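Sample intake sheet
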Amino acid sequence: MRSSLRSSKGTLPLKPSLDFYLDSIDDQVSKLPRGTEYSILAHSIGGWVSRGYLTNAPPSVSGCCKALVTLGTPNKAPPSGSLAAKLDQTRGLLNDVNSKPNIAGTKYVSVVSNKVKGGWKSLDSLLALSSYFALSGTGTSSGDGITDSASGTMMGDDAETITCDAVHMNFLPSPAPFPNPRILGARWYGDFVDDWLSALK
């Protein structure tokens, strides 16, 4: 009941709301020998969930993370007081993540795109318009077709940003067990690996 009330008010905390995802990351990190340095590469929502993992992990674990690189992640919550904020898709989870400081000694890098401008000219731009508006309150900005570049930029004086011409995804989802067909000509963040690979080191 308490969780339902927080959801309706947009004040959901990351823990315990997303413990399943946080535990999944921890399962992988815990396989490393104690004290081993590691980096995290995450796409879309996985980026801010990974940031939440680091800020909630013990210092002995988070302190070993050399870098967190996010690809097309909506790292910023909608502007306070805006219509988009009232419709916040994360129900406050992203605000909870952003309320905690970055981990000292960890490199934070956002990989964003300006490939698709939101608008009314095509199906791609119309989809971008609705998605960008929900994230930032500005539908006519530019991004990867799902995440606008402004929302994709991580906060913090120590955060870096890399821009490429990627789209959020380069396939059409299909029901299992059928393979996901590729979208011809669409280049995903992985196609620009040379632009951001060094940030993981």
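Comment: The mean pLDDT is 90. Residues 2-163 form one domain.
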